[in-house]
């Protein structure tokens, strides 16, 4: 069960992995940008990244690792700068694959009336239109575990994307990976924190929104 915010830094014997969602993206055409290159933060997104960096400034952060996509790298930059670190790139943190990438996309019943979409939408549990939830969870948890073990007793920050962060959280909490997108608790530039004991056992998952509630779920394009 998530708390309102991560607990204070410096709990003896614990290691914390902070999963940060990137800030708002400049996307006036409302394209589902997915893994497309060169989608950068908007001015609001840049400010969100700075606010999240201030939120994490008091933690003993040993490393800041980000998805290779520009929006994640830009979000990671002020966090790393606050701790005098360079941003490390980890491709396991990348956005999930999606059939609708590059299209102006709106989730609506109209999709179901198009026969060309039926094969794509046939299995929402997997989901059939993109990277399977199980694959997302596996790569995210593997990355989190490796970086946790690299810096025991400290904090590491992994900057990723909405669906990978939310899928990782559900996996950590032992929940089924299939979910309603409009019920994700993963606001822009939010911080989902997995706190581990010295033996690697998960103690809890905390959650904080340094920028307050922002877009989540089905209303978010690209994520």
Description:
The structure is a single chain. The protein has 223 residues and is an alpha/beta fold. The chain has one domain (15-30, 40-98, 131-215): Phosphoglycerate mutase-like (Rossmann fold). It contains 4 helices and 6 strands. The protein has helices spanning 43-56, 70-82, 133-150, 162-172; strands at 15-21, 61-66, 87-89, 155-160, 191-196, 202-208. The protein has a 6-stranded mixed sheet, with helices on both faces. It is globular and about 50 Å long. It starts with 14 loop residues before the first strand and ends in a 15-residue tail after the last strand. The relative contact order is 0.25. The mean pLDDT is 87.
Largest sheet: 6 strands, mixed
The count of strands amounts to: 6
Order of helices and strands: EHEHEHEHEE
Query: What's the pLDDT, averaged over the residues?
Result: 87
Largest beta sheet: what is the strand line-up? 3-2-4-1-5-6
Strand percentage lies at: 15-25%
User: What is the CATH architecture term?
Assistant: 3-Layer(aba) Sandwich
Helix-and-strand structural type? alpha/beta
**CATH topology (level 3) name:** Rossmann fold
Shape: globular
Classified by CATH, the class is: Alpha Beta
Query: What is the H level of CATH, i.e. the homologous superfamily?
Result: Phosphoglycerate mutase-like
Uncertain runs are: none
